[in-house]
Amino acid sequence: MKKFATALALVLMAGTTLGAASPALAQAKPKAEKPVPPKLSKPILAIVIAAQKLQTAGDHAGAIAKLDEAKDVPRAEKDDALIMAKLKLYSAQVLKDNIKLEEALSEAVLAPSIEAEEKITFTKFIAGLASNRKDYQKAWTAYEAYLTAKPDDVDMLVQAASVNAALNNRPRVVELLSKAIALREAAGQKGDRSWYEFRAQAVIDGNMADQIMPALLGWVKAFPEPRSYNTAIELTKQRAGNLDNNTLIDFGRLLWAAGAMTTAGNYLEYAEAALDRGMPNEADLVLKEGIAKKLIDPTKVGIGEIVKQATAKNAESKAGIAALEKEAKTSPRIALVVADTLANLGQHEKAVPFYKGLVGAAGIDQDTVNLRLAVALMKAGDKAGAKAAFDAVKAGPRRAIAQFYDVLLAAA
Fold this sequence. Notes:
Layout: H1 8-13, H2 42-56, H3 60-69, H4 80-95, H5 98-109, H6 116-132, H7 136-149, H8 154-166, H9 170-186, H10 193-205, H11 209-222, H12 226-240, H13 245-257, H14 264-276, H15 280-292, H16 303-327, H17 332-344, H18 348-358, H19 366-379, H20 383-391, H21 396-411
């Protein structure tokens, strides 16, 4: 299976690291201006006083050690747990000790007297710190709690997707990235390219058949570029398995229409399929572009022969098209060759009646006819007719091809 990028999940996670303790946590130190002093038990009060003296003296390591010594002292009053956690949080922040910082945050969110908004904020930092340590299960627990409170936080949705990628939970990756993408698109924006790419890879790797085309189509809609189309179409071809040359021609035409012929293999596969199916004019056109783009070297053994064959047979094909047009009424197969030849000579308006004459014809694959009719109508400028013909393509790889064309048609 083709992969998009090395460690793409790490790209998704970029920017989530807390690193040194965030200034946003500076307020975690107990506030002297509180109108009501915290309610502390006597044993905890004694520890608090001792720890604060050490903090005032600048001995934050000593303060943390003092607080840790009291881990088994019962938190009898409502504020005991929170004040102890916040004292540790303050010193850990000063020391830039992420291990103790995460420990303090984890203790604080369990404290009975913590306020709801502060709990959400602390949970967010726990998620990032646990992710950095690669404790992905703890990170996901924190992300899940945070997203329950703030379900529309796009950045956290993406970070949570990255954690679930590490946990190999592909359905949840898709769910989270889809929500992040939907939120961005609802706001008139689009997500980062890696979100679409990774979602597509996740649905394919997870064999989520009903979500594969929506993921691929969503990607090329957001990033209608040669690279996006090429990868999405190639992934579709891979899933389709071994394809005959007639189907490879339709995939080649799709890549061509999308401007997504980016490799020598794209050009050669398309050209060889066209030659095999008696469409040398198409093969000649494709090969000439590949040579012009310096993706194909006609001096190489084998390639030069294909180029010569396409050129020679193209001349024969053009010379014989008039005679074939006369024979088209006698054979649906010949009519299809005529329609394809006219379309690839750029005579789309002339090709359309031949394709339409094949709609419903016995012995001719109707998905092939409707797909090629739709493309000819699209190139002739009949968007409504093209849309109707694309919609008439019902099954197999050509249905996927028609869906990609729908995206191209909408953008035309």
